[in-house]
Amino acid sequence: MTKGGNRLLLDLYRTMRRIRTFEERVNELFVRGQTAGSMLHMSIGEEAISGVCRAMEQSDSFTTHHRGHGIFIARGADPNRMMSEIAGKADGYCSGKGGSMHIADMGLGALGANAIVGGGIPHVVGAGLSYRNRGLKNVSVAFFGDGASQQGILYEAMNMAALWKLPVVFCCINNQYGMGTRIDRAAANTNLHERAIACGLNGVAVDGGDVEEVHEMSERVLDSARNGRPGFIAMTCYRHFGHARLDKSPYRDEAEELEGRKRDAVLNARAKLIERQTSDAASLDSMDDEVAKEMNAAVEHAIAAVPPGQDSMFRDVFAMGEPQPRPLRQHLSSILGEAR
Amino acid sequence: MAAIETTYRDALRQALIDAMTEDASIFVMGEEVGRYGGAYGVTKGLLEMFGENRVVDTPIAEAGIIGAAIGAAMTGSRPVAELMYIDFAGLTMDQVANQAAKSRYMFGGQIGVPMVLRTQGGTGRSAAAQHSQSLEAWFTLIPGLRVVMPATVNDAYHLLRMALKHPDPVIFIEHKALYVRKGELDVDNPDGAWGKSAIRREGTDVTIVTYSKMVFESLAAAEALAGHGVSAEVIDIRCLNPLDDETFITSVMKTGRAMVVTEAVMTSGFAAELSARISERCFDFLEEPVVRVTGEDIPIPVSPALERGAVPSAQLIAETGLWLVKRIAPSWAA
User: Fold this and answer.
1) Among B120, B154, B185, where does a domain finish?
2) CA distance B52 to A185
3) Which distant-in-sequence residues (6+ apart) come within 8 Å of B193 by Cβ?
4) Same-domain check for residues B20 and B165
């Protein structure tokens, strides 16, 4: 049992249930033909990252990857604005510019959400430098998948973080698949935290099926990082479904999936809560129902929301007040129009 | 063999199969090219046909993939390295621009890098800013690289076959919205030689110079223009390097008007190169300025309506053509 005890576990259970239900509703939004495209990467099976997010302070920053919905839910993002962004609507977090892969709420400390594998990792090094130089006690956390752990940029970033003793944590969500490639077909040494140790980081491995373990270990690693010993958390979990919405995972067999899905932090937390008599099935069901209502409302919100206006496409390429891109039609008018 | 109807994707796959059957030094490497069959299905079935040594699934490590392909090309193999999205080129540019492109020249002709970098770009899937770009100009800027962009099914096959016989690095850029497009494949008859343009529609009033998916938007525009009494000639350049100037210059000398159409952005895009060459060579023949119809100078937004609006449509090309030839301004004209 962790420091926070059973009430903390109940809280984490609710967060994890919100993530799972949100992702299920993203699927529903797709089936109803309301998403912007099909590049929807679900984090079902990765809900224990709630334990990492819980160990972070409000003022800490982080970067995420294309499979980042769950991290934002755990950090407290608004499901309505997330769902709207997935639908490409004007009131989405990125004004309908980014979509599922780029949902980001900078108000929660996000420094971006990347669709380039590993793209966001080095930013935490810079954030760490910035905090150190400004005398702040913040930590910056990079969330990425096992796929990104094969990118060279991770090693450049880990080396710098260790060399300069920065308040940085690398959190590798090892769901065992980079798209269709299982980790043991992408890495000779699949103990990814050992690579971090070799770089001089505080590298730990945690079981993504056990949110209490993830939380407890994350608190320790984040505390150390805050005091100048950067860390690496390798959280092993299982990507319960395909890479993206249209991927039916033909590259893995059903037996593996059934076994893999047993690593389920949501159901494990639920069983523990009942076993410890912190809660009972009926109360948890009613909590789940509340969450379902919230996420159903997010779907309806996104469907009802208005799409962005055509003129908005030119906004935010550069800062307001700076020279803006000239629309093509204006350019054509300058060549072919009456005023030429 | 008679022509058959097939898809762009299947024509590409057939080209790989035929080339690999013919030349044992050819092998494919990249993310998800084997068991998965390619993110867009181009390499489906190749693993079963050619085995793991010739269809190599790699970790997600783009710089490493391209770098390894260069080494293989320098040592007697002919690699086809697949870069899943052209947007990932950012991770590979040292290997592409400083290593692959420069080895022959910098070492005084002692060594070549006969490799093909297959990739795909463009809009059409709401894949957002980091998965939808048209980055051909990143490559055409670098001396030492060949750059080809097939539009038709027949070119998908033949240009890939030609690329796999080429002595230098070829950047082979497909379009993600063309994979399911059907067309005629005649394995015995290419649409033209390597480095030659194809006239896709003949016309007398205006020349539209274009490539990749915009060939089809331009053909649709030409059809619409015909309804207004405007005869448009559509030229598909097929190869950006080597570039066949003569076909489009001859055409513009005939029509006296030119539009250059690309999905890529206008500023410093390949349309600027085409436009400059036309202006330089056809100055005395032009009735009107050369007009570029291109993607907006913005990142690609995810929202489907915005994404469509960010790149030229057949309607916009036709409206511009009508304006250029008949002085009929579109409704949005300022």
Assistant:
1) B185
2) 12
3) none
4) yes
**For residues A312 and B316, is the Cβ–Cβ distance under 8 A?**
no
CA distance A125 to A142: 9
Distance from CA of A90 to the nearest CA of B (A): 9
CB B332 within 8 A of CB B313: no
Q: Please tell me which of the candidates A97, A147, A328 has its beta carbon nearest to residue B294.
A: A328
> Is the per-residue pLDDT at A3 higher than 60?
no
CA distance A251 to chain B (A): 6
Specify the number of domains making up chain B: 2
> B44 and B97 in one domain?
yes
Instruction: Inspect the interface and report whether the beta carbons of B64 and A338 lie closer than 8 Å.
Output: no
Contacts of A340 (CB under 8 A, 6+ apart): A334
Give the Å distances, CA to CA, from A217 to A45, A54, A263: 19, 11, 18
Cβ of A332 and B131 within 8 Å? no
DSSP element (H, E) containing B291 = strand B291-295
* Residue A273 host element (H or E): helix A265-275
Res. B1: pLDDT tops 80: no
User: B270-299: per-residue pLDDT in tens?
Assistant: 999 999 999 999 999 999 999 999 999 999
Phi, psi of A204 (to 5 degrees): -135, 155
Nearest by CB to residue B296, choosing from A187, A327, A333, is A327
Evaluate whether ipTM surpasses 0.90.
yes
Q: Rounded CA gap, A43 and A26, in Å?
A: 11
For residue B305, give the chain A residue with the closest CA.
Answer: A310
CA distance A53 to A265: 15
Interface check for B93 against chain A (CB to CB < 8 A): the answer is no
- Distance between CA atoms of residues A166 and A124, nearest Å: 9
* CB pair distance less than 8 Å for B128 and A314: no
The C-alpha angle B298, B300, B303, rounded to 5 degrees, equals 125
What CA–CA distance (Å, rounded) separates B169 from B167? 7
pLDDT tens for B132-141 read 999 999 999 9
State the Cα–Cα distance between residues B78 and A28, nearest whole angstrom.
45
Task: Spot the catalytic one: B31, B82, B131, B174.
Answer: B131
pLDDT above 80 for B87: yes
CB nearest B304 (choices: A36, A328, A332): A36
Only one residue has tokens 């320098």, namely B74
- Residues of the domain holding B109: 4-185
Architecture of domain A5-336: 3-Layer(aba) Sandwich (3.40)
Instruction: Reduce the DSSP state of residue A102 to 3 states and report it.
Output: helix
CB atoms within 10 A of CB A137: 12
3-state secondary structure B6-58: EEHHHHHHHHHHHHHHHCCCEEEEECCCCCCCCCCCCCCCHHHHHCCCCEEEC
Tokens 């080396």 belong to which residue? A159
Q: In sequence order, which residues have a C-beta less than 8 Å from that of residue A87 and are 6 or more positions away?
A: A29, A34, A35, A36, A302, A303, A305
Same domain, B235 and B298: yes
Cα angle for residues A12, A288, A254 (degrees, 5° grid): 85
Last residue of a domain, one of B185, B215, B235: B185
pLDDT at A5: 86
In a domain, B332, yes or no: no
* Separation between Cα atoms, residue A95 and residue A81, nearest integer Å: 9
